[in-house]
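WARN retry 2 of 3 for item q-0093 after timeout on previous attempt; input resubmitted unchanged.
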Amino acid sequence: MIDAKGAFGVTRIGFILVSFLALTACKSSEEKAEAYVQSAIELSSRGEVRGAILDLKNAIRLDEHNVAARKLYAQLLFEAGEISRAYREYKYVSEAQPNDLDAVRAMAGIAFDSNDLDGAQSFLSKAQAIDAEDSGVREIAVGLAYRDAAKARDDAAMDQAAREAEAILDLNAEAVRARRVVIASLIRTGQTEEALSVIDAGLALTPEDRALHNTKLLALNELGHMEETRAHILTMISLDPDDTATQRLLMDWYLTQDRVDEAEAWLKGRIDDESANAMPRLTYLRFLSQLRSNAVMRDELRALLEMDPLPNDVAENLDLFRALLAGADYIAGDTDQAMADLERLIEGKESDAKLDQIKMQLSVMYRETGNAARARALIEEVLAHDAGQLMALQEKAQWLISDGDIDNAILVLRSALGDAPDDPELFSLLATAYERDGKRQLMSDMLARAVEASNNAPDESLRFAAVLFQKGEPRLAEKVIEQALRRASRDLRLHNSLARIHLEMRDWPRAARDIDVISQTFSSQEAQEIVADLKAQLLAQQDKSDELTTFLQERVDAADSTLGAKIANIRNYLLNGNVEAARERMALVLQDAPDDPNVRLIAAMVEKDAGDPAAAQIAFKTLTQDVPDFVPAWRALAQVTQELESGEAAIEVVEAALEVSAQDRDLRLDYAGRLEQVGRIDEAIAAYDALYAQGSDDLVVANNLASLLTAYRRDAQTVERAYDIALRLKGTSVPAFQDTFGWAAFLAGNVDEARPALEAAVKSLPNEASVVYHLGEVYVRLGRVEEAHAQFERASDLLRNGLDVDPRLRADLAKALETLAQ
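OK item q-0093 returned
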């Protein structure tokens, strides 16, 4: 018997190989591609997906028009979680074969799952034209119908969509989107136990469905099943032990239950000194920073790095631990040293996933310290190595939003969502992008998705609640905060937000209960200051002036009385007209802290409020000389100088302040506003422009800049730019912002956008002649002549009554009336 590794074996293999090469040399590229496709089909049937994907890539390289290869490639990419790449392949198939139902339906589903509802509807319509009765097509249609009904708050339509989804689910238990509609409907109608049964049935089929797991946590929280919640979080962690988001959920649970030591012990217990996996120890150290303090974590990390020998998980990932230490140093204020340490860690090293993490950490530091060029260069380095690196895509989207390149920012974020469909940060960034683009409903939708994806995390919930409250939906805002409190009941920000929502709703019994909860739950100085502020507001709203005075005096008389308590008491005396009492108490405060600039500032303000602005001016001026970098004193001095002297004199004060604090944003904004007030318009525009370039997310700056551009410059290029800036204001409830956006939209030719904004502005500002005139011009453009004439007459009456004296407005209005009369 001859050994297979002997000469005979080698000769035979060589002969076969030569014969094979000879045969394949005669094959066409299409035939070779088909061979790869058949191999991929065989591999995928055996579960070897990666090998099948590789074969299909080879097939497409040989025959780029092979639609069957691309279709199978798209399907396998989708199953492997590479959603954005799958989408691109399905798009190719649908363009090559417009009636391919599988491709069109898949694209509709991907668009729906990533919340691209316009795209989903477009592809759904195409799929329905091919086969409207297809179960997958019906499922997407029901999902869209439920979302549309939920937006419209149409209970009947939601119920109908839920019934249709239930019918689909009865026929196909794997209909994931239909299952989600059924679950959402059951939770909405208070049938949470029934929802849990539907969720569990879904998890039995798809045990790694993150969205279903999150929904189960929501349902368990809703029912108050706390131990079951903990058990389920542990189940989720067992499915993905390195998922820090789920670990954070567990930490929140422990904190909510006042079981901090158990949280720390659980994290510590996952560390294996012999393992090469650094994630458990890194997670423990990061949470240690949050559970204890950055200083505690930094001390432990330093001691760890001095160990000899190092634990294996540290030794194998030494750069990551050194980078974590640099991050702790950065937080502690050693910014330059921290960044230098990270630069040394990345210098001259070949890119890999670990190095990408360090580069992104360094990029954030450079962004925060003002070196945008270096920050962006690092991001591009990371993306050149790994085009799908999530943090790099997030940071790139942030800078695109900051630059005003919203379309590309949205493309980047949607691409990232394809591969990370449950990342709350991506939804939050999309919300910011849509806000910048003036699409406030889409912004609100994305914030809702961020709350859902984060499982009601505090940060995402607070932002969404704030938007809902601004939209005049306090009940919904209240519900969002209450759900977040079930996850993080010891988050002071959430309790404070809920109390303020109840105060604004004038729901005094619940506001009082909120205040009591904060007082009893939190002992920190910050919490007690919040309690005092909330209680004072509650008493003021209820017109209980005597009780308010007593309460504020009790705070002053307390052994641990704070400066804030004393100032609040002094202001209360001023509000009640008791000037002498206010002065007496201010003198006592000043006596205790004669050198405190804040105390001196408030003492001067008391003099001004008491009717002696000249004494206040002297005090403010002396304070700016003694503490030149104390910006609030300069701003107070500028204001009282304007009142006593002139606007130009106030500008001179602000210019002197800018010589000391040139980059202070509040001071620069004050300067721009004062330039506008005295009619130095070109200088004001330049000042606002510089502020906008540095922080285009500032709505006040955006409003003022767009307003000046549309008022004083009417060339096409400027109008277009003003409209782009004003898009930030679209959909807001602030009347001045509505006017600015509406007028900019009108000048840019977007009359249908302008009309509702200006109608809302006039409703809130009926005595602003310029706003009324703007609406009149819109009505003229729409051919609504009688309504336009009424608005122009109203604006004329306001001008005659001296409520608006802008000479340019008088001229514009006279011309408009003359034109209308012809």
